Hints:
- 68% of the residues lie in helices and 0% in strands.
- It contains 9 helices and no strands.
- The chain has helices spanning 3-31, 39-46, 50-56, 60-69, 85-106, 108-114, 132-147, 156-176, 183-198.
- α5 packs antiparallel against α7 and α6 packs across α8 (156-176).
Amino acid sequence: MSEKTELSRQQQKSKATKEKIFQAAKVILKKKGYEELSIKNICEEAGVSNGSFYHHFKTKDDLLSYYIEEQPNINPDILELPVNAAEAKDAIIRVYLNYVAYCKELGVEFMAGYYDTKNQALNVAIRTERPYPIVTVQHYVEKAMEAGTLRLTEGIEEFTTDIRMIVIGNVFEWCLRNGEVDFEGNMTRSLGRYLESVLL
Length: 200
């Protein structure tokens, strides 16, 4: 048996275990809420050992963040350098509409559990890795500013903080209303108005 085939099987097994752990976390979040989302409960629900959990994830919040940050990549073509602020606004909104689609795929229960004040993975003061969409947007805007095709009316840190707060607000509203809101429309409108005020 070739090493490549063996590695592929090992990777498949690892992926299946990760998925089993994640599905167990989703079940617990849906039935009992974030308070009951302990590693012990996740392992029992998934039928895996604690060692297996820690082989894949550092903490339960790391588990939740993994699925948030591993969202499908957006089409890189829409993130080519913008020629003006309107083009940049459109590209940034598309990044977050991709995020909206991924939130919907994960489901209200999961997202409501993730966006919990106890989840320290959301605390940018102590988290060294930031979620994928804001990193993508920050790099995109910085490249456009370096190229001279875009300017901001505020600093990049304020800009990314504002976007993060707008996005969290939209996700929270969607969760609070149990998915019965125009998630895409609200995200497009609120982000669009903000971007119009800061992109030059």
